[in-house]
Structures are given as structure tokens and as C-alpha cells.
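ingest -> validate -> predict -> emit
validate: passed (alphabet ok, no gaps, 145 aa)
predict: started
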Amino acid sequence: MKNKFLFPHHYRRIGWMIFFPSLILGLACMHADFSFNFLDIDLGIQKELFDSGTLNFTDEIAGIGVIISLLFIAFSKEKIEDEFINRLRLESLQFAVYLNYLVLILQILLVHGTAFLDIMVYNMFSVLLLFIIRFRAMIYIQNQD
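emit:
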């Protein structure tokens, strides 16, 4: 079966090359208030009394980089793309979605306040991460047999 919605195999390597710098940049933005000054955009309005109306797009660049890299890693073709790989891909995606929403339900019940917003940021990436982990683990297990 030909799957026309997968990226070429070499995109996985590109995805890994984008992932680590984007991840480090994103973590630095969230936990160390890091930003690149050249990404400041002046809106020309004053949003609040002590705010200049300038936005910085460092965290947006990091988030977009992580998403694109995870999509490249998750949905690039295998060297041998057959029905078995397609089934593993589908089962892994289904597993990732179920597990992600189970964890999200627990987070909704157990986490409150501003910590919930931080968790939701991580939750944006967890479906793809869970999919990649399970899919790669299943391929590894099958190759051991």
C-alpha cells in the first residue's frame, strides 16, 4: 500500500537536527526567560501601563521548531515501508492518543493554577513524543526477533 502522506526517509535526520536546538531553546525560554533581542517586534501601542507593547517571538520559533521536527521524525518513511510498518504506525498513534488524553485527564484533576498552563505547553508535544517512542520501540522489538 502506498502512503502518500509520509515524508521521505531522509527527513527523519533533518528532524533530529532541528529537534535538539529547538528543544533547548524552548526550555531556555520557559525556565530561564531567555530571548533573542533581534526577534523583538514593536507593536506601536502600549498594552499596559508598564509594558512597552513589544513582543518577542523566541518562544514561538522554538515551539514551531519542535513541532516541525517531531512531525519529520514521526512521519518520515522507513527504508522498507510495508503493511506491517503501516499497522505498527497506526497502532502506535492510537496508543499515543489514548495515553496522552488519559494523562491530560489526570492533569486536569490534579494540577491547578499557573502550573496547569505549563503542563499544557508540554502536552502540545506529548502525542508526537509518545508516538515516536512507542513506534521506535515496537520496531526495535520486532528487529530483535
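The helical segments are 11-32, 58-74, 83-110, 114-144.
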